């Protein structure tokens, strides 16, 4: 499951083993992701499916860049639920996303610290 949360090997392969770039991308993710999560939380709390769908799409891309595949899949599920107008499913999948995000963040921080 750890590899699915943050696949360091695939991440580095996708960047031609450029560790400096990898660290920059992780830093950007660790800085931007909490903002997007907060925005998505607000949208879902307000019942704003349209904004929630767009924010889930944004999160999906961010997670894909750092090879956090489980997060990317969950964000996609949130996005699809939004496209189908299913606010309850969006909220459910977002709960799953947040649970995985904490663990993925820990792995990314460890990767950075191992630098």
The biggest beta sheet is recorded as: none
Are there runs of 5+ residues with pLDDT below 50, and where? none
Total beta strand runs: 0
Can you write the helix and strand succession as a string? HHHHHH
- Overall pLDDT: 95
| Large-scale geometry | elongated
Helix content estimate: over 70%
N/C terminus separation: 22 Å
Beta fraction of the residues?
under 5%
Number of helices: 6
Query: Radius of gyration over alpha carbons?
Result: 14 Å
Structural class: mainly alpha
Written overview of the protein:
The protein has 115 residues and is mostly helical. It contains six helices and no strands. Helix 3 (19-46) runs antiparallel to helix 4, helix 3 (19-46) packs antiparallel against helix 6 and helix 5 (69-83) packs antiparallel against helix 6 (87-114). The two termini are 22 Å apart.
